[in-house]
Input
Amino acid sequence: MQTQQAEVGAGAPGGAWDRVVDLVSRYPVTVITIFFIIFPFVVPYKALATQIIIWGLFALGYNVCLGYTGMLSFGHAAYFGVGAYTLGIVLIRLWENLWFGLACATFMGAFTALILGFMCIKRKGIYFALLTLAFAQLLYFLAFQWVDLTGGDNGLRHIPAVPLPLPGFTVDIQDPLRFYFLVLFFVVLALMLLQRVLQSPFGRVLEAVRENDPRARSCGYETTNVRWMAFIISGAISGLAGGLYALYLHFVGIETLYWVTSGQILMITLLGGMGSFIGPFIGAGVFLFLEDVLSAITDNWMIFLGTIFILCVLFFPEGIWGSVMKLVNRSAGKKG
Amino acid sequence: MPKHQKGKGKGVSRRSFFKTTGVAAGAAALGGFHFTRTAQASKPLKLGCPLPLTGPYGTEALDQKAGAQLAVDQINAKGGVLGRKVELVVRDTKLKADEASRRAKELIESVGVELMTGCLSASNQLAVNEQCKLAGIPYMSISQANEITERGDASVYTWHEALNPHQTTQAVGGWVGKNFGKRWYFLTSDYAFGWQLTDGLRRAGKAYGIMDVGETKHPLGTSDFSSYFPRIMAAKPDVLFLDNFGKDQLNSVKQATSFGMKKKMQLICPVLLASARLGAGTKAYEGVKGGTSFYWQQDIPTAQAFTKAFWDKNGRPPIDYAGYAYGGVLELLGGVNRAGKLAALPLAKALEGRKYDNYKGPQWWRPCDHQSQQDVFILESKPPKKKYDVFKIIDTVSGANEALMRTCVEVGAVKGKPMRVGLKK
Output
């Protein structure tokens, strides 16, 4: 897909718009990074920008599962929530170190995906979706009941406001803008690693599995393990996003593990467009921005958000970014 | 277009792209800063108020909003706070704790609120309290929770105007123990608030030698309770406590009535809501008794004044949660006025140990945990003679001398010492 676009872009003379699209598809990580450096200065408030890139990161992790490997998971709240709770519990009980906390969150996200993936990965389609949902709900009720560790229904509180330790000095990250750039650092890191993974032979196999599992198997790939691996990567990124979310709010609500979160991340990914780097971020931006704006205007904001979502799914099944790309490709094709 | 054609190689087009975006970013950044600066020049004092406007507690949240707004209007009519007009900024928490947390963060960081009130349900309050403690903003909590005045959550910034489940259950449990049978059954909303009501009632009942004949937990937001009733009937209780709130209370009372439970047992709602009673109707609530912090027909001058002002503005009498919001906001804003400046420590000194009567009779701020001491009223539902005339006050349980409260030691504070935890320099 990427090479195809590059060819089209190089072949057609195109306008400024085509050049931008060409750049975006050739250097997605650079473009996303630049865009998000500007981003906090143009949104209504910085906390919203932070929230959008955290959810964008979560959607990016989810997209590894849904967009790149074609597995519809309905239980990603589990990895996000486990990451969030891990960060909180580590900072409260073990060690007030931010790097350590985030590393633990990422690891626990991956580890949970490893365990749950082991039990779900051999099923496909609706069975896979329902199994992941069931296991995520299991974790939800575990957290709900285990009040001593998780705070139960009242949520995990008293997460200390720790500074960011760097070699030689520490940085206070309570300032919204500084915290935003800390999150952005992790987003860019995750993007670069993910790009490396997806452009490797392993990434190609993922796409092969998504497009035609039996054929990939007949080519000699152990597709179950490939999907399991993708699931674990997805869990790790989701766990990291969860850890950042806990750090951002200094609080973990029990809703983080609830199935509604899984539904939301699916909505965000579908809204933005699957199978690309940019789609999840656009989805998170549109979703959270609409939620923010609409819920300030009306109490019945969910009706409008739901309607917009249904219209998007009906008329732009590739999501916002997918539709834009399709449109651009078509116009480029005409000119060429 | 020679430049473009020359630069079809990646280098130049990428550079020009950077240039354009850079200029755009600079312009946007400057514009944004300019805007915030002008906004700060003529600023009213903003009072943040996150409430669960959508969800099962929406009706009560709307009354809280109206109560808080009334208090703000009255203060503004008297010249505002420290010469500044007060503006109430309401946000919807959707009854989710992390949403409440996000909204509080947004209110603090982008709206620039300097004081906070609001929330319904323990988890929401605790989440908002956490944000307020971090930012050093005084928070007046206006819904029931035990934890908020306990060690860990309580702080010099935290104030709790509402009753807590402990006070409510000690009053209601004691009253029921004196007046009704000994076999008690609990229908509990399955989250902290419900658990705390049930635990508190059990504790209060011990002194009267009650028998706990069973408990059924239902999830928050249950619409069909009928499957729970046969088991409750089989336990043959004298009293059935409905330890729930909002629409859950409305639905459970309605369905218990149509199931014929009332013929066999007394229904008690520890937090008996006028809003649920009005929603369910006379017949459903007939004979149901319970506790409240406020009822609009109270024969107390401040209660009458509050009811009249609220009614004139909203066309209906206030419910108990409107009272919490009204009383709490008056205390918070009045406290800042008396303190003479907007800071946590002077505010604490202005409120701690203060005796006041805003809307329901005598109240007192206990210094050690910032909990408001107050009376609990026992109500019985009755057929209305006129609209909104739905309860009869059958008893008053006095809260004087910390009778209904946990001791300072029990909540992890030091008796006689004012709360100073978490004070930022």
